[in-house]
Amino acid sequence: MLAWLLFPFLNFISFTFAQDEYILKPISETWIDDKSCTTVALVFSPLQNTTFAVVQESLQNNITSRALYVESNPSVRLCAAAVNYRDEILQNALLSEYSVIMIMAPKVLGTVKSFKKLPKNFEILDIGLGCGTFRTFWRSKFTSVSITSIEFDPAIAYIAKTWYGAVESNNSKIIVADGVEFVKTNTKKYDAIFLDACTNSPDSDLICPDPSFLKDDVISQFRDSLKPVGCIVMNCFSLKSVGKDILIQRVKTTFERFFKFCFLLKVKNSDFNKVLACTNGPLPLEGIKNQYVIDYFKTVPPYTLIVESANTTTI
Ligand SMILES: *[C@@H]1O[C@H](CO)[C@@H](O)[C@H](O)[C@H]1NC(C)=O
Ligand SMILES: *[C@@H]1O[C@H](CO)[C@@H](O)[C@H](O)[C@H]1NC(C)=O
Ligand SMILES: *[C@@H]1O[C@H](CO)[C@@H](O)[C@H](O)[C@H]1NC(C)=O
Ligand SMILES: *[C@@H]1O[C@H](CO)[C@@H](O)[C@H](O)[C@H]1NC(C)=O
């Protein structure tokens, strides 16, 4: 009798625990008023005290963009994935140029000699899961790659798994943890670290990376978490109309105190993003210059962005 009474009670406890991490809201409460967009889900995050919206918009050729927005900073599209007419995520498609550049950066810096011949034990640390863009892409293209994603908000982890097809496997986990704390205690060595962790505070001058990642002890730990030819690649994003280049340049200068080579890679289609890539390994060519890296980057195997051509990105 007692067990029978306890059982539903325990169930209720675990149910409310899970619900504490994310709360589904009726889509009628959406703040997205663009008529061409459909709100698919609204998820409240108690951790960040704000609501995330999964929003779909038809692109072309039966391709739909499934984007993620946050109520606390509504002008920013956090991330997006391409979806086909069967409602399936196109795993090897990338919707934003900055994510293409981030994925190409390890090749530019010489960490990856050839995407066709990635070492079997290639290991990636992916901080800031978002829509799961990086892990989904890497896993779809390179099955041998092991990728560990760190996401600090359980609501985002839930969103990525539910609407963006982010799946886990033995060698690619999604860990809900604070990226800064994870890195500080990490003892493993990675080939590449992708940092796309942003603040959702509209008052912050620098939105990505979240300023908590720019402290000396965190950056030195990033350096120590890389294999000898490893690299760290991050999304730098600011909405400040005046001074954003200086802010982003300052991120580069800060990382240069810990890394021999840092490059800011331009994102052609965005005034707000730049990709910073740093390594302590040897560069692929002698005496490489920042501009040269950008030119070299243009020569790496062609990719097409789905927004521009409605076909998938290839590298
Ligand atoms: C959560 O955000 C709302 C506004 O969106 C605010 O009124 C409320 O005070 C906030 N709660 C906490 C605990 O910060
Ligand atoms: C577009 O979607 C419809 C179903 O909505 C499907 O019948 C058709 O084959 C699709 N066309 C292409 C080119 O994928
Ligand atoms: C994953 O790991 C578990 C336990 O270590 C093992 O039983 C399982 O076979 C593994 N799965 C794959 C696909 O390797
Ligand atoms: C992708 O788009 C490009 C440019 O529009 C085109 O040249 C190419 O043939 C397309 N590839 C496929 C597989 O559809």
UniProtKB/TrEMBL annotation:
CDD domains given in the database record: AdoMet_MTases
InterPro entries per the UniProt record, alphabetical: SAM-dependent_MTases_sf
Flavoprotein as UniProt keyword: no
Biological source species: Panagrellus redivivus
Keyword check for Signal: yes
Keyword terms of this UniProt record: Signal
Pfam families for the chain: PCMT
Record's signal peptide: 1-18
Protein name according to UniProt: PABS domain-containing protein
